[in-house]
Specification:
globular
């Protein structure tokens, strides 16, 4: 199974890239975690942020194939414990499709992305910095795998 993290934003601090890579490289080849960075839509004084979000959403959807399972990271989504996440990951694997996790830009995900998503997942009711979400997601995906593989990392 391949899990792709589709994230709006480029040029992250080095420690973010190192953190994401550390957890993704720990996963076995049959359980890949990949990062796909998408550029921010144009923002600034006098520019419509809705238009920027729509462009970001269109780019995001263009990278997803028709059969992939799509999970939107959304503050209004379901909060999962680590154990629940491992159950979700097990279900994703049994489904036999690849998974795309969608992380929006500073204004969130476009409505077209939320509409495409089969599930909505909230990492926390807190507002988290987008760069940190990448590392947090990678670590939690690794932790969920470690539970399924009965690896001692979760202890």
């Amino acid at each position: 199974m391949k899990i792709r993290l589709l994230a709006v934003g480029t040029r992250m601090p080095q420690w973010i890239n190192i953190g994401f890579q550390e957890y993704s490289r720990r996963l076995p080849p049959e359980f890949q975690l990949q990062l796909v960075e998408l550029p921010l839509g144009p923002r600034g004084q006098g520019l419509d942020f809705q238009r920027a979000m729509t462009k970001e959403g269109q780019r995001m959807l263009a990278t997803i194939n028709a059969v992939e399972r799509v999970i939107a990271l959304d503050v209004k989504g379901q909060c999962w414990s680590t154990e629940t996440l491992s159950e979700q990951v097990w279900q994703w694997r049994m489904d036999g499709r690849n998974v795309s996790l969608l992380v929006g830009g500073p204004d969130g995900l476009a409505d077209i992305c939320l509409a495409r998503a089969e599930q909505r997942w909230s990492l926390s009711p807190l507002t988290l910095p987008h760069p940190l979400v990448r590392v947090l997601l990678a670590e939690q995906i690794y932790r969920a795998w470690s539970i399924l593989a009965r690896h001692p990392y979760h202890k």
